[in-house]
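Task card 7
Instruction: Convert sequence to structure tokens.
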Amino acid sequence: MKSFWKNSAVVSARLAAAPGLLVTLDFDGTLTALAQTPGQARLKPEFKAALRSLACAPGISVFILSGRALKNVRSLVGLPNLYYGGNHGMEIRGPGFAWRDAGAAKARELVAAIAADIQERFPPGAGVLVENKVFSASVHYRSLKADYRRGFFSRMKTLMSAPSPTLYWRGGRKVFELLPRGAAHKGGAVKLLAGRLGCPVVATVGDDLTDEDMFMALPGRAITIRVGRKAGSKAGYFLTSQAEVLRLLHFITAARLGG
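Output:
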């Protein structure tokens, strides 16, 4: 991985020359700092203003691609002319385009049953938050209380080791995610939307394991940026902190405007 800002002149030239550019951004940990719970996350006004300006720059389409449910991430950003992806790309909606992964939709009932089982086993005071996002589920344990720690990890180990032809588990930052096998992921979602919009150049920004899917899936000409340097990441560049993402949004806009 290379420092983005040490190589910004090269990137700026690529951004300016692109006949069409799809800028894809993760939400939690990228557009917003990680919150104690998903419900506490808020998009700061300066980030929202920067996204609005970016979307108005010539030849740019903006895609907010999140592990959150589509309705949730659209509400948090609140800008009408952007493209949004929920459940890591299992559902996409934006101007003139709507798509949903058919295979993921078939797993809804099983996802709901497992999410309900976990929620019933751990009362609200346990510090375990279960999100049923319809096509996937997230089990957050950032606030897990010590008295429940052993029982929680024992239960999760049992669930994660049980073979299933339909679903699988993946870990993240203080979260376990339940996902449909074979469903769309962030890499496939970006490629799908870029092809639909006719954008030959893609710039992606993310900070977590699921964002590696899009870093790995995109061809070498893509501009892939990770928030936080991490050994083994497939991103080409890194930013040192989430706070630098605002500067990056202004940078991309300026590059397209010739500033």
